[in-house]
């Protein structure tokens, strides 16, 4: 027996014998973190299973940085702090566009721009970070991130950014943990949200 | 707006490389298609060309492109859609591209968007945001990719549909 939701116009089969098998899809939530009222100096996903093909992180982030309206976020992998990271970005500010890079870093120092709660209140940055073949030990790991922050005006001459970021971790190890930290701020603020998804291989 | 994503197929390039990555007999039961490509070229051309139903004709595009320091906006004709790393880039490093194909089964022209990056532990690196059009009304039943300048996809390159 199928159920039709009038409200959402969705049709779903139940799990009774005789019905079509339920396929949850290839995009699977692994873990989520929502920062509480006390803030968090880091957000970390640990013990990431190796059973997926790719990973994706979707996040909605703000830090407690003062003076400015936009901060950056750092990303480290497997607690590695050696000089094994690099990044490049293509970034627009609403009036200009730039390409930039940095290499031989101890963390990905600009994986994303984020909002600043101290100066902008409810403004958050949003990011979707893809990590392909994260458990493939033949490859260095690459990260591709489309992200943006807008603060509806400017603070210290900055009003936000839209960015395509590419980053590199020069290790072939499978990724088992991801650690996010604010760049200039000291903590992620209340309601910042990070969600980790796994993308299954074709069966 | 898709309810979720479903895995259709994955290809991993074996030793010796591959000139083409191809997904055939794509079912018509979905709304949109997404292709994720992790690729490295066996040569020094980073361009990955997309083809629908084996056709390389009637593609056009607008792109925002960075080489790691300068940025250009370009409008071109052709079926270029993604980036690979070069054989001269940092070893064991693969490009990282996402291609979104809307309404692939419709009888309208097909619109694509892509965000694609190479990667390299050096200043030089290719990145792009692209909007692309295939001016053809046929439903898409196969998607294939070939490396620019007739180079091959290097071993361990992958594509997921």
Overall description:
The complex is a heterodimer of chains A (203) and B (161). Chain A has 203 residues and is mostly beta strands. In chain A, the strands form two sheets. In chain A, strands 3, 4, 5, 6, 7, 8, 9, 10, 11, 12, 13 and 14 form a twelve-stranded mixed sheet that branches. Chain A has a two-stranded antiparallel ribbon with strand order 1-2. Chain A has one helix at 117-120, and strands spanning 2-5, 10-13, 27-34, 43-45, 54-63, 70-77, 85-92, 97-105, 108-116, 125-131, 141-155, 158-169, 178-182, 193-199. In chain A, strand 11 (141-155) and strand 12 form a beta hairpin. Mean pLDDT of chain A is 90; it is low at 1-11. With 161 residues, chain B is an all-beta fold. Chain B has one domain: Sandwich (Jelly Rolls), CATH 2.60.120. In chain B, 0% of the residues lie in helices and 43% in strands. Chain B has no helices and twelve strands. Chain B has strands at 10-12, 20-23, 33-39, 47-52, 59-66, 71-77, 80-83, 95-101, 110-117, 127-134, 143-147, 158-160. In chain B, the strands form two sheets. An eight-stranded antiparallel sheet of chain B has the order 1-12-3-8-9-10-5-6, with no helix packed on it. At the A-B interface, strand 7, strand 8, strand 11 and strand 12 of A face strand 5, strand 8, strand 9 and strand 10 of B.
């Amino acid at each position: 027996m199928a159920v039709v939701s009038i409200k959402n116009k969705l049709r779903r089969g139940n799990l009774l014998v005789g019905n079509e098998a339920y396929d949850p899809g290839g995009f699977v939530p692994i873990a989520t973190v929502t920062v509480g009222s006390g803030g968090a100096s880091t957000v970390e996903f640990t013990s990431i299973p190796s059973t997926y093909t790719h990973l994706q992180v979707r996040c909605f982030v703000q830090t407690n940085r003062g003076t400015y309206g936009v901060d950056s976020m750092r990303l480290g992998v497997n607690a590695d702090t050696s000089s094994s990271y690099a990044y490049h970005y293509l970034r627009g500010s609403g009036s200009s566009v730039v390409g930039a890079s940095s290499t031989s870093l101890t963390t990905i120092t600009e994986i994303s721009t984020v909002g600043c709660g101290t100066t902008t209140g409810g403004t958050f940055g949003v990011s979707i970070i893809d990590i392909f073949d994260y458990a493939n030990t033949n490859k260095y790991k690459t990260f591709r991130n489309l992200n943006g922050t807008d603060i509806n005006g400017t603070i210290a001459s900055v009003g936000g950014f839209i960015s395509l970021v590419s980053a590199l971790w020069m290790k072939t190890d499978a990724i088992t943990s991801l650690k996010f930290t604010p760049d200039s701020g000291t903590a992620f603020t209340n309601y910042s949200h990070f969600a980790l998804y796994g993308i299954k291989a074709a069966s | 707006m898709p309810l979720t994503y479903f895995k259709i197929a994955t290809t991993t390039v074996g030793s010796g490389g591959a000139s083409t990555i191809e997904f055939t007999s794509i079912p018509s039961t979905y709304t949109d298609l997404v292709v994720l490509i992790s690729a490295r070229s066996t040569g020094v051309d980073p361009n990955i060309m997309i083809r629908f139903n084996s056709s390389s004709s009637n593609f056009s595009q607008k792109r925002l492109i960075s080489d790691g320091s300068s940025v250009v906006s370009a409008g071109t004709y052709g079926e270029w859609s993604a980036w690979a790393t070069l054989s001269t880039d940092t070893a064991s490093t693969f490009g990282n591209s996402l291609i979104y194909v809307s309404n692939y089964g419709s009888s309208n022209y097909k619109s694509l968007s892509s965000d694609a990056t190479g990667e390299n532990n050096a200043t030089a690196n290719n990145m792009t945001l692209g909007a692309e059009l295939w001016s053809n009304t046929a439903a898409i039943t196969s998607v294939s990719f070939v490396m620019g300048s007739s180079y091959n996809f290097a071993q361990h390159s992958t594509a997921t549909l």
